[in-house]
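S., here's the first fold you wanted:
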Amino acid sequence: MVNNMRGAMWLCVFVVPMAVSPVSKASEQSDESFAAAFQVMSSSPPYVRVTVINELASESRTYCVTSNILLGAIDKERQLNGQSRAPGDARKIVLSAPGHVFRFKQQAAMDYIPKRYSDEDLEEVRTALDAFATEDLGKIGANRLQLLIPGRHYWDVRDALACGLIERGLSPVMQDITGQVGLARPR
């Protein structure tokens, strides 16, 4: 009995830090929107909201990155683990991951998929977006979106802005040439 209790306590110590932070349903990206981000490879990659679990550090974080960065991190992880990298493998892994949760054991893969904004940046973006109805946000062009966060260098909050738009049910992309956040056009 005592040995079983010690084993249970040992398990709890290591499982708790790996737990994924609770996220409200309103801020999750729909499976349809997530899958659509991987349908077409483009020079204007769509953003996706993911939970990344760093198994080396026993930590998880939920944030937004472009779809091509996620695919690259998965390819890097598989390469460093000695797994084959057939074309389309990373995409299959992405589309089959429950809850958009991805586990990484290789530091090089984690370095490939950095979180480029703070929780405070995201909160600032949410506050700015709250001034607009979602349908109005869908009409704002990329040049105007970057003006929503006055007093901040746009590149510092670009990924946070994309995350805020995903939370509102929109589908942001990183536009080619300018690197600005825009919204995907309906197909």
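And the second, which I think is the more interesting of the pair:
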Amino acid sequence: MQTLNGDTLFCFSRPQARTLAKLLISGSYSDSISNSISLENQRLYVVLEKKDKLINNLNLKIEFTSQIIDNQGQNLRFLKEHLKKVDKKLTQSRRQKKWMLVSLISLTIFSVIK
């Protein structure tokens, strides 16, 4: 160990320098690998959050669609009941017209006969 201009310098033999260089290189590789893995993890978390949001939105869409289908079913039942009532009123009015026509004809015949 030597001090030069206020800096501390270390002296190593060739085998020690090789060993230290290997350790430094492996450390920098492991740091770069660690950084790339952490970036990949962050990307995966972002993708996972987007997937979860998409799933939630699709679940809401399913709920709304099922509610729409239920409402349409209720509307169909209401319209069927209303159609039955209108049909019933129509047939009653037709019967009334027929009876009125029969009554009018019979009154006419009776008045002509008398």
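Why I say that: The longest strand covers residues 2-4. The two ends are 149 Å apart (CA to CA).

Talk tomorrow,
H.
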